[in-house]
Amino acid sequence: MTAKEKNITLRIIQTTDVHGAFFPYDFINRKPKRGSLARVSTYVNRLRSEMGDRVILLDNGDILQGQPTCYYYNFVNTQSTHIAADLINYMRYDAQTVGNHDIEPGHEVYDKWIREVQCPTLGANVIDTRTGQPYLKPYTVLEREGVKIAILGLLTPAIPNWLTPDKWNDLRFDDMTATARRWVKHLQENEKPDVIIGLFHSGKEGGIVTDKYDENASLRIAREVPGFDIVFFGHDHEQHNECVTNTEGKTVLCLNPANNATALADAQIDLTLRKGKVVAKKVTGMLADITTEAIDEALMKHFQPHIDEVNAYIDREIGEFKRTIHIRDSYFGNSAFNDFILNLQLQITGADIAFNAPLSFDAAIQAGPVRVSDMFNLYKYENQLFVMRLTGEEIRRHLEMSYNQWVNTMQSPDDHLFLLTEEKSRGDHRRFLGFKYPFFNFDAAAGIDYEVDVTKPDGQKVRILQMSNGQPFDEAKWYRVAVNSYRGNGGGELLTRGAGIPHDSLESRIVWRSERDQRYYLMQEIEKLRVVDPQPNHNWRFVPEEWVKPAAERDRKLLFKTKE
């Protein structure tokens, strides 16, 4: 290095998909939590003590949903500063993006949160349709010791496939790749940064692909839009650490630490400056496990009043369950867990038929007192409740697609009952046999009696026998069907690709929608009942039983590592 040269090292830290994991405590299940921002804070503070402001801290969205801490400040205590904003400010984040689950609670919630956050909230492709301009800041530029770092934010544009327009009125979500290309050019021509970082709430690739956009476009942008040094991404909850080569032959570091603040992305940029200009640049990165980090006790002390307030809310007893109910039973046929939700959907709406799928892989509500915290196991997301008009044929086709993703076409008694694949385990990174497709699209129904023949080919498995009240089921007849808002808006494509309803026709099929989230109404019903004894409906089953029963026992052991 010559006398006129200067070396600078920057560390860029990213969290993403925190989903309310603010503190090392699971408020739903009332037990310690492995990750949390309280541990991230220790990691970041240690770096800052060594490197000062050469540490840049970024968050990549989906912070407003996942734990009762979020729900409480979204919908109960709406007067105080949102706890997610308080944490972002306390930990001195330099920038953040929004995620799809941040849009889910609606304008009133996320607009307030964005106002309260002291760092820029980025989203170049979130467009205000009233002005045609970005609703959020497209990018921010930071300067560290003469080095200009531009951070460009993007959000997956698949929002309309999951959320109804009232959640994002006056907004549109443009294609990520085209938007990235436009704004990188703007940055290079107008800001002339030394480093360009992508902060994308979008998965690596795949997901929903239409002629207008890709749900998960992060790797595509890294490859096809020259200019980025680092692409931080999230959304798909999968850890990823890869260097890709872009169309100019340059290397782009791509990092995703997955979800729930159990890891973070840590990128290091080593720069050499000569006469104030960057003449050499090296980018490296890793995913850091923060589950063994010490808890930041100063953070915990600062937020103890918030924690106490949330605990007081979730500790309220709302009823009693006479028996323990398990989500895992829902995969094998009728279950008290899923049918309890389905039956309450029918009771609340007066619909003829209801659809519901497991929203957590394996949760339970224990016999005994039921508290507000248990409701987050009973119903994980803040979905509204809809009633839609569907024909009998559409109902059957909807179920066909559900079971096509759920169960195998068994060729012999020795086959798997379920469509399984090998994937990474949560936490310890061992390999295990899991479901090939997302379990939250495994809709079962109440209000009809039916069989699912696992020896039949896809599209021919479901045979609807009758309405559960004994009346005939007619494929030509119109029925009122209760669904959650995710499904009713096209989530999982069961109503579109499955039932064959055009996406732009879904809105016209909705004849009733709830004002509040479904969990709120389920809680109200339990408070009315006080003592609840959930039972399976026994309105559907897998056949042939002589094949299904032993196959189910084998797959249960594989999925849940149990000898039961």
The gyration radius over C-alpha positions equals 25 Å
Which regions contain 5 or more consecutive residues with pLDDT less than 50? Answer: 424-430
Number of strands: 32
Main sheet: strand order:
6-5-4-1-16-17
**Helix-residue proportion:** 25-40%
The largest sheet is: 6 strands, mixed
Describe the protein's architecture and organization.
With 564 residues, this protein is of the alpha/beta class. 29% of the residues lie in helices and 29% in strands. The protein has 16 helices and 32 strands. The strands form nine sheets. It has a six-stranded mixed β-sheet with strand order 6-5-4-1-16-17, with helices on one face. β12, α7 (218-224) and β13 (230-233) form a beta-alpha-beta unit. The chain is globular. It starts with a strand and ends with a helix. Mean pLDDT is 94; it is low at 424-430.
Features:
6-stranded mixed β-sheet; 564 residues; 16 helices; globular; 29% strand; 29% helix; alpha/beta
How would you summarize what this structure contains?
This protein has 564 residues and is an alpha/beta fold.
